[in-house]
Amino acid sequence: MKKRIVNNVEYLTFKNFNKHRFLKHGFSTRHGGVSEGYFSSMNLRLESSDSKENVKRNFEIFLDIFDLKRDNAMFSDQVHDNKILVVTNKNEINCSDFDGLITDLSDFGLITFHADCVPVFFADVKKKVIGVAHSGWKGTSLNISFEMISKFKNVYNSELKDIIVGIGPSIGGCCYEVGKEVYDEFILKSDLYNEFFEKKNEKYMFDLKRTIEFDLIRAGIKKENIEISNYCTKCDSDLFFSHRAHGLKRGSMVALIVKQ
Ligand SMILES: [Zn+2]
Asked: Residues with Cβ < 8 Å from 157, sequence gap 6 or more?
């Protein structure tokens, strides 16, 4: 990934997305906002005990980098499921229970919220369709990336070779300890998932990002079209809010993509 600083706001971008002029995108960090204390400083979590004024201001600051107003963006209301909302008009208001968003509308941002769970960015660079998904372990076990690719194919007639993907900053295999119930959920689907788990006492260290890459390749996405962030949100908790590092005393980052 590439770090950018605009108006003192630090955010991260994917090199494979930066090559395409019609795309603007970014994953926010903690830096560049106005919130204080453990929300310091770029807290973009709407339902937090942070000052509403500060969160509102943070959104203005962050969206301004992408020439967006809050009314020109769709926010996911994610529930750790695998449903993708196809956004076909800018006045769409029903976004509850969707962990992924996809659109071919211009100048309209798609936003998901994160604090350890994986942001997955998508774009069809020929048909100019964009998507973003929130993929925690539940969404990953329900293969939300596959659901997203299906929308590209079935709604927008995308060809798999034209789809690029960015798997963003999230808790890494170094820090993501899960219980047997998570391991069992994946192994029930296929033994092939075994390679993404490392047994540690009674628990497992789980590499969510590599699991998503594996699912994407199985869905037909070219490996060279997938860029994976090395950032671990827990290891780098000065740069990111991390649920595992900070518990509930934290804000949230956002993943944003927009086509121009
Ligand atoms: Zn880590």
From this structure: 127
CA atoms of 226 and 91, how far apart (whole Å): 32
pLDDT digits (tens, 9 = 90+) for 151-205: 999 999 999 999 999 999 999 999 999 999 999 999 999 999 999 999 999 999 9
Please give the structure tokens belonging to residue 243. 């649920």
- What would you report as the CA-atom Rg of the chain, rounded to the nearest whole angstrom? 17
- Only one residue has tokens 């927009």, namely 258
Distance 85 CA to ligand 1 centre (A): 31
Band of pLDDT at residue 11, cut at 50, 70 and 90: very high
The pLDDT assigned to 248 comes to 87
Burial label, 202 (beta-carbon count in 10 A; 0-12, 13-18, 19+): exposed
C-alpha–C-alpha distance, residues 15 and 71, integer Å? 28
Distance in Å, CA 253 to ligand 1 centroid: 17
Give the SS3 label for residue 50.
coil
Tell me the CATH class for 2-171+226-259: alpha beta
As given in the structure block, the two tokens for residue 77 are: 């209301």
Give the span between the Cα atoms of 96 and 93, in whole angstroms: 9
d(CA 24, CA 231): 20
Question: 243 C-alpha to center of ligand 1: Å?
Answer: 12
Residue with the two structure tokens 């604090």: 115
pTM of the model: 0.98
Q: What are the CA-CA distances from residue 248 to residues 15, 115, 170 (Å)?
A: 32, 10, 17
Domain ranges in the chain are 2-171+226-259
CA of 170 to the centre of ligand 1 (A): 9
Token pair, residue 249, equals: 């005393």
